Structure formats: structure tokens, C-alpha cells
Amino acid sequence: MPRQFFVGGNFKMNGVAESITGIVNNLNSSKLDPNTEVVISPPALYLTLTRSLADPKIGVAAQNVFDKPNGAFTGEISVEQLKDAKIDWVVIGHSERRVILKETDEFIARKTKAAIDGGLSVIFCIGETLEEREANKTIEVVTRQLNAAAKELSKEQWAKVVIAYEPVWAIGTGKVATTEQAQEVHAAIREWLGKTIDSHAQETVRVIYGGSVSEKNCRELATQPDVDGFLVGGASLKPAFVDIVNARI
Ligand code: PEP
User: Fold this and answer.
1) For a Cys staple, 213 with which of 121, 184, 229, 230, CB 3.0–4.6 Å?
2) Residue 166 catalytic?
3) pLDDT digits (tens, 9 = 90+) for 33-84
């Protein structure tokens, strides 16, 4: 069975109730490719608003979750609380959290495990910095990030993971990876899935690309055999997000 195309929209720390309502209403009233799975990720404060407004076909993702079930963890949100708010997805390991908030591979892997154990699906973000790419360390870095998750997850749990390859140098910079650069890393990730998890994961786990995806570059990227969709930041706040969802039609 072919892998279902997946487009995520990461609003990051942008928007207030009025603008988020506008974005969701626009998506609800747009013609979206029925073969694309769409998941939007507003700031935590607007998760319940977004879930209540969005068409049930549109998934909603938190931008973070904590690895402990409850307790004295001021400012954190638990898996149970997300499930209670009818949220089914979470973005984990975004480079802004890895780089700015110094989240480690191990912490990210523990959060991924806690999320999946508690019934959430995970958009698991990985990717290299410019310095790492220039030092020819791209595959080494993404392999290290994936290996940390593989230590925590059972083989079956990979069915709940969408891997987002997001080169850090391409996020929010307007510098998109070339189709060849994206395909090369996606193919390496798929090979890693086969070697480290199993052939089922290799065939079925979706690997999406993120980093300055726009309505202008999405179609060409979407032609690549191992690009199963996108994680979109800036452009997910604009009406052009609909064109990215529809990149394959
Ligand atoms: C992101 O936030 O995951 C992202 C890819 O951002 P942008 O599309 O703005 O580069």
C-alpha cells in the first residue's frame, strides 16, 4: 500500500484566537486533497480552540509534551492532558527546541516513548545544522537522532511515528533543500528504518521534509519517491498552505 501523503502545519509561537480561527476556518472551507493527511499544530493555549473549530478530518498536534505523567513540573503538559483535550498528535524534537532549549536526543526519545505509550502519534523531527552538513556529517547526525528513539520504542511503535527531516539551515531561512538533497537524506532514513527496525517500518513509516516549504517549491519536492509530505512552518499561517496540502494533485 502506498504511504499516505502527510502535511503538517507548525504555527510555532504565532497567532492569537482571532487569527488562528481565521486560519482554521480557511482550511475548513478549502478543497483539500482527500488523499492527504493534514495535521495542524497551534500554540498550546489554542489547542482546544483549534480542535473544536477544525473539521474532524484535520488532525491537531501539540508542539511539545513532557515525558513524566504528572507532578511538580511547572509549565509542562502531559500526554494524558493532551488526550483529555482530544489531541491525537504531538511534534517532538523540533530543532528550535533542540537548539534553543537544549533538548537532548535522549530526552526527545523519552518524550516520544511516553507520547506513544499514552496513545499519541508523533511527528519526530530530526536534521543537521549547516556546520554539520558542511562537515559531511548529515547522515551521521540524523542516524544518531534516530538511534536514540530506536532505543526507546518497540518495532510496533514506529507505526505511530512520522519522521520529519528538517535541515536546521533550511528552517525559517527561505533556503530550501534541493530535491536531490532532500531525496538523498530521505532515502538514507528509509534505509536506516530497514536495517534498524524492520522491512515493514521501511515500507510504511512516512518521512516528510521541512524547511522553507512554500507553494512554489512543494510540487517539485513532492515528486521525490521518498518524500511523503511536508512539515510547514511559516507558510502554514498563510492561505498558501492549502496549495502545499494539494501538492500532489
Ligand atoms: C518548521 O517549523 O518545522 C519549519 C519547517 O519552518 P519553515 O517552514 O518556516 O521553514
Assistant:
1) 230
2) yes
3) 999 999 999 999 999 999 999 999 999 999 999 999 999 999 999 999 999 9
Most ligand 1 atoms within 8 A of CB, residue of 6, 92, 171 to mutate? 171
Q: Which is the catalytic residue, given 94, 103, 128, 152?
A: 94
| Ligand 1 midpoint to CA 111 (Å) | 21
The active-site residue, picked from 37, 103, 152, 166, is 166
Bridging pattern class, strands 89-92 and 59-62: parallel
Q: What is the pLDDT of residue 218?
A: 98
The reply to whether 96 belongs to the active site is no
Nearest to 169 by CA among 132, 136, 137: 132
Q: Which atom of ligand 1 is nearest to the CA of 170?
A: 10
Between β-strands 59-62 and 36-41, what pairing exists: parallel, antiparallel or unpaired? parallel
Q: CA-CA distance, 67 to 208, in Å (whole number)? A: 24
Helices (H), ranges, the chain = 17-29, 47-53, 79-84, 95-99, 105-117, 130-134, 138-152, 179-192, 199-204, 218-221, 241-245
d(CA 186, CA 7): 16
CATH 3.20.20.70 matches 5-245: yes
Ligand 1 contacts (CB < 6 A) are 10, 12, 166, 171-172, 210-213, 231-235
9 CA to centre of ligand 1 in angstroms: 8
ipTM of model over 0.85: yes
Segments making up each domain of the chain, as ranges: 5-245
Exposed/middle/buried for residue 128 (C-beta within 10 Å: 0-12, 13-18, 19+): buried
